[in-house]
Every structure is written in C-alpha cells, then in structure tokens.
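Retro notes, item 3 of 5
We never archived the inputs for the 2-acetamido-2-deoxy-beta-D-glucopyranose complex last cycle. Fixing that now. Sequence and ligand:
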Amino acid sequence: MDEEYDVIVLGTGLTECILSGLLSVEGKKVLHMDRNDYYGGDSASLNLTQLYRKFRPNQAPPSELGRDRDYAVDLIPKFIIASGEMTKILVHTEVTRYLEFKQIAGSFVYRDGRISKVPSTEIEAVKSPLMGLFEKRRAKKFFEFLQTWRDDDPATHQGLNLDRDSMKTIYEKFGLEPGTQDFIGHAMALYLDDDYITKPARETYSRIVLYTSSMARYGKSPYIYPLYGLGELPQSFARLSAIYGGTYMLDKPIDEVITDADGKFVGVKSGGETVKAKQVIGDPSYFGAGKEAEGGKIRVIEEGKVVRAICILKHPIPGTDDSDSCQIIIPQNQVNRRNDIYIAMVSSTHNVCAKDVYVAIVSTIVETDKPELEIAPGVNLLGPIYDKFVSVTPIYVPTAPGTADNIFVTKSYDATSHFETVVEDVHDVWKRVVGSDLVLKKRDTEAEVQG
Ligand SMILES: *[C@@H]1O[C@H](CO)[C@@H](O)[C@H](O)[C@H]1NC(C)=O
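Structure as it came back at the time:
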C-alpha cells in the first residue's frame, strides 16, 4: 500500500508546528497529531482551569483571580528578539497576519544585589547606575568600538581581530570589570554561562549587535511578545499548514510508532488504526521521554533539567519602574552559580491574565538536588507572591539524527529566554528531513486564495 502522507508530525509544540507549516508550504502532505486536546504541547499557554488542573488537581482556581478566559499562562517563558531569527520566520511565512505583537517594556540585569536597566548604547552606558564613573568611561569606549566596527575598514579595528581574539582579550583591552562583563555577556549577548569568554569574539559581537539593533526597533526592550500568549505561535503555524493542505488531529492517543524489520519508520498506530507515511517528526515525549512515552524504542537522552516557577503577582516587580512586562537576568557569577537565572514577566497588557495581575516566571538550569532553592534569588526579587507553581522538567535531545530510520526527534525547550535555539532546531531537523538547507522564501499568496 502506498503511504497516505509524506510526513506525520507528533506533538503540536512550536518546533513541530513551524516544521509542519514549512513542510506544507513546500508541498509535502502532512498529518499532524497530538495526544492532548489542546495545541502547544510543552509550549502551550493555559487558562486558569488548565493551570490549576495541571499543578493542583485538587484545587479550583480562586475566584479572586477573575475570569478563566482572561488567562493564557505560558508553560515555557520566552520572548521574541525583535530582529532575530524567529521574527524572520514569522515574517517570511506571513504568519504575522494571524498574530498581534506588543513590545516587552523593560530589560533589566542584576548586579551587586539590585536590578538596573540594561544599557544598550554608549549614551545609555554613561547614564547607567550599573557602573561607577571610571567604568562608565571605559564602557563608553567599548560600545563605541562595537558601533563603529566595519569589517572592511581596519582603521575601526583598534588592532583587534574578532575572528582571532577572544572576548577576554577585548574586555581586557577596554579594562572592563568582571561585573560589567557579566551584564554584557549575559544580559546583552544572552549567554547562559561563561564559556564564550575564551572563544573568538565574533559570535559575541554579533549577539550584542543583534541586541542593540533589536532595542533600536522599539525602544524599551529588544523583545516582543504575542497578544494572548506564546501558545498563539504554534496555532498560527498550524493555520499556515492547514491552508496548504495539512491535516490536524488533536486528542489522538498515539499507541505506537511502527517500524519494519530493519528498524525503518512505517507508520503511526493511533486508536488501533495505522497511518502510513515516509517520515515522522515528533517531540521527545513521543519517543521515550519520561513515563509518558508511548510504545516503541527510546530515542532521546536527558541532557539536564530546567526548574521553572510560575508566580502570580498582584503588583509589578519592584525596581522595574512599574513596567507592565520585563525580562530580568541574574548573571551566574552574581549569585555564585554556573547558570543564569531568568525572570520573564507579562501582564494584562498582553491579554494573558486579568487586570492588575502579573505573571512572572523564574527559571534556571538545575545544578543541585534542591532546584527550588536555586531560583530563590529570582523569586526574592518579585515581592509578595499570590500563588506559585514550580516544575522541574528534563531537557531531552535525540540520540540519532533520524536519517537512517526516517524518525526525526526534536529537542525539548531549553532554558534560554528567547526563541533563537528553537529556530536552530527547526533548521537542523529540516535539513535532515528534506536533505537541503531551509531557505525562507516569501510564501505564495495565491495558494491562500485557493485554500
Ligand atoms: C479552559 O480550559 C478548559 C479545559 O481545557 C476548557 O474546558 C474551558 O473551556 C477553558 N475556558 C475558557 C474560558 O476558555
């Protein structure tokens, strides 16, 4: 029997939905299934009933928090970098037509026990309370160096070579203090740890330029966020896929991923029926991650854990000028850790909760056997907390590229505060599934008229 579909996609998380959207646009026949009765998998946004059901099955949401339908609480806290790769995919696929974005009102960093705005230009650096008088002058020279750098003009290089010299060399050249290096490397270049310091400076330079150019786009922060929560992102790509003939089925139990005698993918058994396809793509939970695994072989390995605390507040975060939304980064060195702690806060401005409620998610990579203590430095910045939901989630990665058996597994969502690594995974899986690089073309609007 011929395969009915080119690709079966399991799980409607963001990575899987972007892939099924792009594959459908490319002309592939896609069947997309999810065991849940809602879109988004691990990257869903939940209403109050769903949130309490997930974390406190025996407790109804307090009526004080308002109406269920006002809530869309993200399970994975991430923001979109205005000039980043995620924005590129949204624009090129024109998925932006299904979404409305608002900027995030502030970007803050923790230094020496308090939080301050992240300066992103030499002018802001000079005003920043993050640095003393002499350090400000040095930081100003550093930012000027970055802003005037032109690859083809050695006069702007000040004797430095971004492809050869390490970031350490560059910090030393400008005499920047360790605390200043912390906010540049972690709150602007958005590194999770300090491994970047000894590597060639080019990547860090590009990341800082991405931060400052994104900042320049909207002014208050380099981040944007979709109204009604991040769960809108996978749903928008699902709509794109559907326009191009993709089939979506929610609430489908996945009994087994079926392979032939050589271990190659044959089809997916769901509710006693087998659907055949050439290839399958799915999130780790369908391939042996944790106890939710359905039938078949384990194809993922745990690569660490993330602890996340969803905190419901009745006030903005202290010290953020009453921002209705913000990101706060606590660089690892500032609290004697190896991984940064992130805080992402959104509110009714983004239609994700009732008026006068604020939802802050504190997260980090787990380093000890007491993960809740590890996020305490972040939780302590929030002021009184109305309610808190803590989870520890393993990060899974595939054990094989999938090209040998046509079974392609995506990665779990990591601890980064943005979507750039999700887009990297999309490119990576695409290349293995299709056999060539993903080239983002503007989509053919004709198809939509016919669809
Ligand atoms: C919230 O989620 C529950 C469970 O999925 C659903 O039954 C309910 O309709 C949702 N509430 C609103 C207002 O959307």
